[in-house]
Design brief:
heterodimer; A: 116 residues; mainly beta; seven-stranded mixed sheet; four-stranded antiparallel sheet; B: mainly beta; six-stranded mixed sheet
Chain lengths: 116, 113
């Protein structure tokens, strides 16, 4: 079946621009996670949704980062006034079970954001 | 908060060599432990996981990992690697009470044919 998809796959933004990154999770998956992966590092947790509720946003690095999942399926990560330090791969993952990060997470291919 | 250390950044082995990748975490509470793998050009995918019970867990493709609570370790092993095991391997930890999964920095494995 279809896996997690993300779009765009690559995004180049000029410093100061706003960007929106989209994640389509596996149909029926309750949990959705966003991660940021800098070059040479492992993914770092940004935020977690259970259905449409954003239950944890402790990893968002600043108030320029905003995520939503209004209907409990597709999610959008928005970064306002992008800075060079925002350059990274943004990964989305979904999981069948809610309430925990401990069940298998299925990852998308990521969006590589480059801020120039 | 918990952290995860993978001390080997890049490991190069010949085919049929044995593999052990180290993973240590710092957290005293109940944790769930994972190894994820990312093959070249592919998504991250789950290799194996430990929740409870037998501390020696077996995953796909002949991989196994051993949870040693006293050492806060969850090392990944494979007795005989293949060229197709060339990939990046990430150890990850979840605090049982939290929703965030913490990853190590990853170990790049190169297997020479």
């Amino acid at each position: 079946g279809a896996g997690v998809s993300q779009s765009p796959r690559y995004k180049v933004a000029k410093r100061g621009q706003d960007v929106a990154l989209r994640c389509d999770p596996i149909s029926g998956h309750v949990s959705l996670f966003w991660y940021q992966q800098a070059l040479g590092q492992g993914p770092e947790f940004l935020t977690y949704f259970q259905n449409e509720a954003q239950l944890d946003k402790s990893g968002l690095p600043s108030d320029r980062f905003f995520a939503e999942r209004p209907e409990g399926s597709v999610s959008t990560l928005k970064i306002q006034r992008t800075q060079q330090e925002d350059s990274a791969v943004y990964l989305c993952a979904s999981s069948l079970v809610g309430g925990t990060a401990s069940y298998e997470q299925y990852f998308g291919p990521g969006t590589r954001l480059t801020v120039t | 908060a918990q952290s995860v250390s993978q001390h080997n950044h890049h490991v190069i082995l010949s085919e049929a060599a044995s593999l052990e990748l180290g993973c240590n975490y710092s957290y005293g509470g109940t944790v769930n432990l994972f190894w994820y793998v990312q093959y070249p050009g592919q998504h991250l995918q789950l290799l194996l996981k430990y929740f409870s019970g037998d501390p020696l867990v077996k995953g796909i493709k002949g991989f196994e990992a051993e949870f040693i609570k006293s050492k806060f370790s969850f090392n990944l092993r494979k007795p005989s690697v293949q060229w197709s095991d060339t990939a990046e391997y990430f150890c990850a930890v979840v605090d049982y009470n939290n929703n965030d999964m913490r990853f190590g920095a990853g170990t790049r494995l190169t297997v020479k044919p």
